[in-house]
């Protein structure tokens, strides 16, 4: 199986499983990832998802053999990738990228599309397509929205790789840890999120990304409307009462 799904209580683990190819994304992998995320979206018992790669690398990008196909087939491949980006963004549950080894090209795009990212200090990030004579067109979309215009263009136009410390400074990842503590720290973050109410998590993620597309005061008005409606929910009222009464 090129993609695995495992459960650990309220945490779902999606695992890229082509270690011999550094988890390069094939069309089959992308189709399976879309299928898995579609199933997770319907499962309220999963509160947070961890996305990682097997074999010491996160993801080395798209399987380059698929880019040698007919342009229509290449388009279908990238449409599957586009569906995956949308699935991650629309998923009610936050997705944490657990990054070790290489996260380049489409792999760097995956990190940027995830809601949070924890990286090993040995991880490498970049958009190296230009070295092969093809600009990282689609990966630069999400990366530029994480690290800013000039940083993203620098990565895409030079093809150079950056280390995990630089990725942290630029805003591509949230935390950098020692390699042997990567799983521990990722699970620590996942368990923190999983400890909260599902409706609060899912409505918060939905609101956060929707407001990013709005003007400042348009987003503020959207926030006022959202919190006014959400304050009537059972979870919000139970939580507020518990706090005021000094109970869990």
Task: Give a short summary of the structure.
The protein is of the alpha/beta class and 248 residues long.
State the distance separating the first and last CA atoms: 42 Å
What is the overall silhouette?
Answer: globular
Average pLDDT level: 95
CATH class membership of the largest domain? Alpha Beta
Structural class: alpha/beta
The strand line-up of the biggest sheet is 1-2-3-4-6-9
Tell me what the structure shows.
The chain is of the alpha/beta class and 248 residues long. It folds into two domains: 3-194, 2-enoyl-CoA Hydratase, Chain A, domain 1; 198-244, Lyase 2-enoyl-coa Hydratase, Chain  A, domain 2 (Orthogonal Bundle), CATH 1.10.12. It is built from ten helices and nine strands. It has helices at 27-41, 71-90, 106-113, 137-147, 149-158, 164-170, 182-194, 198-212, 216-230, 234-244, and strands at 3-8, 11-16, 48-53, 95-99, 102-104, 116-120, 124-126, 161-163, 175-177. The chain has a six-stranded mixed sheet, sandwiched between helices. Strand 3, helix 2 (71-90) and strand 4 (95-99) form a beta-alpha-beta unit. The N and C termini lie far apart (42 Å).
Question: What labels describe this entry?
Answer:
three-stranded mixed beta sheet; 248 residues; alpha/beta; globular; 10 helices; 50% helix; single chain; six-stranded mixed beta sheet; 2-enoyl-CoA Hydratase, Chain A, domain 1; Lyase 2-enoyl-coa Hydratase, Chain  A, domain 2
């Amino acid at each position: 199986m090129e993609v695995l799904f495992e459960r650990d209580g309220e945490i779902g683990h999606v695992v890229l499983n082509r270690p011999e190819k550094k988890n390069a994304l094939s069309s089959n992998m992308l189709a399976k990832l879309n299928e898995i995320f579609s199933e997770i979206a319907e499962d309220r018992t999963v509160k947070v998802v961890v996305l990682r790669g097997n074999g010491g690398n996160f993801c080395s990008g798209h399987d380059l053999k698929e880019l040698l196909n007919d342009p229509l087939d290449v388009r279908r491949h990238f449409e599957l990738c586009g569906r995956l980006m949308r699935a991650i963004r629309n998923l009610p549950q936050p997705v944490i990228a657990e990054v070790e080894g290489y996260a380049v090209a489409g792999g760097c795009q995956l990190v940027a599309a995830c809601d949070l990212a924890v990286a090993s200090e040995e991880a490498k990030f970049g958009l190296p397509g230009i070295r092969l004579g093809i600009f990282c067109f689609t990966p630069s979309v999400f990366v530029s929205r994480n690290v800013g215009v000039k940083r993203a263009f620098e990565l895409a136009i030079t093809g150079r790789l950056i280390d995990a410390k630089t990725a942290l400074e630029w805003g591509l990842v949230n935390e950098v840890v020692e390699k042997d503590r990567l799983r521990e720290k990722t699970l620590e973050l996942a368990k923190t999120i999983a400890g909260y109410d599902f409706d609060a998590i899912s409505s918060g993620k939905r609101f956060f990304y929707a407001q990013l597309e709005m003007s400042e005061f348009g987003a503020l008005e959207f926030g006022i409307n959202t919190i006014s409606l959400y304050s009537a929910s059972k979870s919000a009222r139970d939580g507020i009462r518990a706090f005021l009464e000094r109970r869990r």
